[in-house]
Recover the amino acids of this structure.
C-alpha cells in the first residue's frame, strides 16, 4: 500500500491575487522562522509550502485566509511573532485560525490535540495539512522510538479529526496501512546493528579533544548507537557513560564496550541524576531531538559550566564518486541535518564551530554495509533497497576511482559544535517531553 506525497508546487493552481497574498505570507514566515530547519535539515519554510500544497492540490481549497493560516501556523508558537502582529498584517480570519493551532508552552500535548474536537472546521484543516506534511516521510526518521511514538499520537488524536473530512480520512487510512508495515520492518533495525557497528566510521581524535574539555571527568555519549563515538571518547582518555534508546544498538554497544555503563533513554529523558557529568557529546543525532525538551534536560545532568558537544560525520561530496554515492542513496540528508547551525539556546552560551577533514579507509564490503545500515535504507520497500545496493555495487565496479581497488578512501568532514552552560543564566525547568508537531 502506498500513499500520495506532496511537494511545494502549487502556485499555478491559484488565482493571481491569492498567490500574491500567500507569497507575502511565506515571506513573512520565512523572516520569522529564520534559520530554523526541519529534522532532515531542509529550511522550515518547505514544510509550510507543503501544508499549502496539501490544501490546494489535495483538498482543493484555495481561500486566501485558509492558505495564509496554513503558512503562518507555527509563527506564534515557534518564533517571537505575536498573534497581534499576525492580525495586523493579515487580518482577523487568519489570526483566529493561527490562534487555534498554536500550542501554549505550558499546555500538555494531549490537551492541545484534544481541543481540536471543538475547533472551527478550517482550523482542523490547517492542523491536518500540518500533520500530513510531517508524517508523509515519518518512516525515514532514524529513531525507532520517535517513529513509533509519533505514529501512535497521530492515530490516537489526528485520525479522528481526519474522519470529519473524506479526503483526509482516505489519505490517512492509506498512510496508516503503509506505516504499520514500515514500522514492523523497522523493528529489524536492531538486527542491522552489527553491520552498523562494523561499517560506520568513528570520529577523529582531534575532533573529540576539541569537543570535550581536557579536564572533564565523566562524559555522557547521548544517543550512543553502537558506540562509534564512545570508542573515540575512550581513546581520548575520558571515562564514558552511554545512553541509547534502541535495544539492538545497546546490545552491540555492550559487546564492544562491556565496561561502559549503558542505559536505555533519550535526549528528552536522560536516566542520570542532576549534575552527573562534566560533558555531553551527541554524534549524528542532534537534528532528531526535541530541542525544547532536551536542552533543559541536558543542562540538568551537566555540572555547572559543563560542556555540550555536537558532532556529525558528513561525506565530502566535493569528490565525484562520493557525490554519485549520495545520489544513489536518494538522500541529501548527510549534507545538511541541521549541522551548519544547530539550535541549542539558553542556558548555553553561543555555539563555537569547527570542521575537521579526514579520510575513512574501508573495504568494498564495508561500503555496502555502510549503505545498508542507514535507517532510511532499512525502511525502504525491499525492491527499492535491493536496487540501491545494486547501484552501489555497480558504482564500485565501474567508477575509475573505485574499480579494482580492495581498500577505498571515503573522504569525510567532521562538523563539530560546542557550547557550555552559562553560569549567569538560571537553568530552565525541564519541559514535558513532546513529539515534533
Amino acid at each position: 500500500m502506498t500513499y500520495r506525497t506532496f511537494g511545494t508546487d502549487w502556485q499555478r493552481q491559484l488565482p493571481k491575487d491569492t498567490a500574491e497574498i500567500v507569497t507575502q505570507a511565506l515571506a513573512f514566515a520565512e523572516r520569522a522562522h529564520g534559520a530554523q530547519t526541519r529534522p532532515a535539515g531542509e529550511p522550515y519554510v518547505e514544510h509550510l509550502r507543503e501544508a499549502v500544497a496539501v490544501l490546494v492540490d489535495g483538498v482543493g481549497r484555495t481561500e486566501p485566509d485558509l492558505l495564509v493560516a496554513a503558512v503562518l501556523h507555527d509563527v506564534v508558537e515557534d518564533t517571537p511573532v505575536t498573534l497581534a502582529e499576525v492580525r495586523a498584517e493579515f487580518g482577523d480570519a487568519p489570526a483566529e485560525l493561527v490562534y487555534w493551532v498554536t500550542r501554549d508552552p505550558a499546555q500538555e500535548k494531549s490537551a492541545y490535540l484534544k481541543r481540536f474536537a471543538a475547533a472551527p472546521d478550517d482550523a482542523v484543516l490547517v492542523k491536518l495539512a500540518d500533520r500530513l506534511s510531517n508524517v508523509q516521510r515519518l518512516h525515514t526518521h532514524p529513531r525507532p522510538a520517535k517513529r513509533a511514538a509519533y505514529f501512535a499520537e497521530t492515530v490516537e488524536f489526528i485520525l479522528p479529526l481526519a474522519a470529519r473530512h473524506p479526503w483526509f480520512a482516505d489519505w490517512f487510512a492509506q498512510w496508516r496501512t503503509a506505516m504499520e508495515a514500515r514500522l514492523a520492518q523497522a523493528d529489524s533495525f536492531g538486527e542491522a546493528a552489527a553491520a552498523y557497528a562494523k561499517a560506520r566510521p568513528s570520529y577523529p581524535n582531534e575532533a573529540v579533544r576539541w569537543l570535550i574539555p581536557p579536564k572533564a571527568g565523566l562524559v555522557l555519549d547521548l544517543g550512543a548507537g553502537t558506540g562509534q563515538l564512545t570508542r573515540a571518547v575512550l581513546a581520548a582518555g575520558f571515562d564514558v557513560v552511554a545512553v541509547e534508546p534502541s535495544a539492538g544498538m545497546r546490545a552491540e554497544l555492550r559487546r564492544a564496550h562491556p565496561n561502559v555503563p549503558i542505559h536505555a533513554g533519550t535526549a528528552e529523558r536522560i536516566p542520570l541524576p542532576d549534575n552527573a557529568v562534566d560533558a555531553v557529546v551527541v554524534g549524528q543525532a542532534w537534528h532528531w531531538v526535541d530541542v525544547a525538551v532536551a536542552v533543559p534536560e541536558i543542562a540538568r545532568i551537566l555540572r555547572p559550566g559543563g560542556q555540550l558537544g555536537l558532532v556529525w560525520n558528513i561525506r565530502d561530496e566535493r569528490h565525484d564518486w562520493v557525490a554519485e554515492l549520495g545520489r544513489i542513496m536518494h538522500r541529501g540528508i548527510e549534507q545538511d541535518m541541521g549541522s551548519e547551525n544547530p539550535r541549542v539556546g539558553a542556558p548555553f552560551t553561543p555555539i563555537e564551530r569547527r570542521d575537521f577533514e579526514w579520510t575513512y579507509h574501508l573495504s568494498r564490503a564495508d561500503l555496502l554495509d555502510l549503505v545498508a545500515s542507514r535507517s532510511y535504507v532499512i525502511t525502504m520497500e525491499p525492491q527499492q533497497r535491493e536496487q540501491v545496493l545494486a547501484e552501489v555495487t555497480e558504482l564500485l565496479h565501474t567508477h575509475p576511482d573505485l574499480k579494482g581497488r580492495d581498500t577505498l578512501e571515503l573522504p569525510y568532514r567532521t562538523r563539530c559544535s560546542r557550547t557550555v552552560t552559562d553560569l549567569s543564566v538560571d537553568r530552565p525547568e525541564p519541559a514535558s517531553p513532546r513529539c515534533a508537531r
In short: The first strand starts at residue 218 and ends at 222. The chain has 19 helices and seven strands.
